[in-house]
Design brief:
This protein has 469 residues and is α/β, with parallel strands linked by helices. It has 15 helices and 22 strands. It has two domains: 265 residues, Aldehyde Dehydrogenase, Chain A, domain 1 (3-Layer(aba) Sandwich), CATH 3.40.605; 189 residues, Aldehyde Dehydrogenase, Chain A, domain 2 (3-Layer(aba) Sandwich), CATH 3.40.309.10. It binds nicotinamide-adenine-dinucleotide. The site of nicotinamide-adenine-dinucleotide has 25 residues, from strand 7, helix 7 and helix 8. This is NAD-dependent succinate-semialdehyde dehydrogenase.
Length: 469
């Protein structure tokens, strides 16, 4: 834990294991609510000096941190790959993406501006300023533990806020080392703190702390609701990046080869454990057989194995036994309700946590696999007659994070995308994430945006000044 500039290794040991084979990767020490409060106290003390530090100086420290992340990328990626069961190239990409967030917001730190409004009353002037909102609780999941934490703390620190981070116990090691890059880069004590420990106990302590003004949470919609309820007690601003139920729509004029390549990325990246994953394939009649046939063939050819193996496999393990059980029960429920498995079944490793990559057809719309976030390498495939039916199916969900549409007719795809109820839409693009892009959801996928100018604004308050001359 990092509290008030001190790295601490007291507390109860908690072992972190490799999802590929169960071997020990390392350990963290679990703290308590008292540690969370001490971290928030430190962040509260550090707030005035940090928020008053010239933006240029804040930016320089963040740039130095980004440089250290890049310098240490190989070690960080290795640790991340082991603890989260990632394929090494994906772990490397995540570390590079984390550094990019820090760099982008360091550059952006110097740009936020207010406005001077033309005055309408004689003897008065009106202006708005943007100022740092206060102490931020940054609570993050295990699926992209480094880049998701980076895209919270980079804009928060750039804006002049101070932070207490709590990270998932399932993959806490690489992100701890990522945070070390900030202290090694010269971030003043107390500006960034890190606590490990029981989720509910630590986040409640943070949300009850009088200095915490923002809770920036990424995780499931279920836990997001709890956080929002707790945040309401002290009217803490909730920034929520929650679950997704991404529709991947293939219209009948799509470039099928490109759509299949996109589908493999959108479904199987990070073994399907991505909030923007393709969750449901919705394919128009005219290209259904060709698209689904190709996708099944390619899925059956995907190799499965430890993400550190050479050659690198196409799919790794899932995070833990709970995930194996959750995905398998969705698939089994759909099969029992009359769905058919299109992909082959293969022998899975006995040690570690593995799930069959699976595509199913004839899944009832009411079965969990057809209407809930899967968060694993399985998906339902639906055949539709036209774009209107595709749209109805795509929007038939309470979630609205990412969606995808594939068509060679950009005008048609554009119009379709305009009616998709999502915060992020990939038009002929399976990888829409970028530091300069405002990412976030609509409906029950969350509140607020991360990345881009908007991502910085979330950590500021507008302060309006009326000045009598
Ligand atoms: P989760 O909701 O179970 O956990 C998220 C974090 O909250 C973890 O650190 C966990 O320890 C903590 N937590 C769990 N119970 C809590 C409680 N009662 N009070 C406070 N904190 C609690 O989610 P997960 O399994 O870690 O991550 C997967 C989910 O996150 C998926 O639903 C996925 O879609 C979502 N996600 C969303 C985005 C996005 O940008 N919208 C990105 C990544 C993941």
């Amino acid at each position: 834990m990092l509290i008030d500039g001190e790295w601490r290794a007291d507390g109860t040991p908690y072992e972190v294991t490799d999802p590929a084979d169960g071997s020990l990767v390392g350990e963290v020490r679990f703290g308590t609510a008292d540690d969370a409060r001490a971290a928030a106290d430190a962040a509260a003390r550090a707030f005035a000096p940090w928020s008053e530090t010239p933006a240029r100086q804040r930016a320089d420290i963040l740039l130095a941190a980004a440089a250290l992340i890049s310098e240490r990328a190989a070690d960080l990626a290795l640790l991340l790959a082991r603890e989260a069961g990632k394929r090494l190239p994906e772990a490397r990409a995540e570390i590079a993406f984390s550094a990019e967030y820090v760099r982008w917001f360091a550059e952006q730190a110097r740009r936020p501006t207010g406005a001077v409004v033309p005055h309408e009353a004689p003897g008065k002037r009106h202006l708005t300023l943007r100022r740092a909102a206060g102490v931020v609780a940054a609570l993050t999941p295990w699926n992209f533990p480094c880049s998701i934490q980076a895209r919270k703390l980079a804009p928060a620190l750039a804006a002049g806020c101070t932070v207490v981070a709590r990270v998932s116990e399932k993959a806490p090691l690489a992100v701890t080392e990522l945070i070390r890059c900030f202290t090694d880069a010269g971030l003043p004590r107390g500006v960034l703190n890190l606590v490990h420990g029981p989720a509910a106990e630590l986040s409640s302590a943070l949300l009850e702390h009088p200095a915490v003004r923002i809770v920036s949470f990424t995780g499931s919609t279920e836990v997001g609701r709890l956080i929002m309820r707790q945040a309401s007690r002290r009217v803490v601003r909730p920034l929520l990046e929650l679950g997704g139920d991404g529709a991947f729509v293939v219209l009948d004029d799509a470039d099928i080869e490109a759509a299949v390549e996109g589908a493999l990325i959108a479904k199987f990246r990070n073994t399907g454990q991505s909030c923007i994953a393709a969750n449901r394939f919705i394919v128009q009649d005219g290209v259904y057989d060709e698209f689904v046939g190709r996708l099944v063939e390619r899925t059956d050819a995907l190799t499965l194995g430890d993400g550190l193996a050479d050659p690198v496999p196409d799919i790794g393990p899932v995070i833990d036994a709970g995930r194996v059980q959750a995905v398998n029960s969705m698939v089994d429920e759909a099969l029992a309700a009359g769905a058919k498995r299109l992909t082959r079944e293969r022998a899975l490793p006995t040690a570690g946590h593995w799930v069959q990559p699976a595509l199913l057809t004839d899944v009832p719309e009411t079965a969990a696999l057809g209407c809930q976030e899967v968060f694993g390498p399985a998906a339902a495939v639906f055949r539709v007659t036209d774009a209107e039916e595709a749209l109805r199916r795509a929007n038939a969900t309470d979630l609205g994070l990412a969606g995808y549409v594939w068509s060679r007719d950009l005008g048609r795809a554009w119009r379709f995308a305009e009616r998709l109820e999502t915060g992020i839409t990939g038009v002929n693009d399976a990888l829409p994430s970028a530091a300069f892009a405002p990412l976030g959801g609509v409906k029950q996928s969350g509140l607020g945006r991360e990345g881009a100018e908007l991502g910085l604004e979330e950590y500021t308050d507008v302060h309006y000044l009326a000045v009598g001359l």
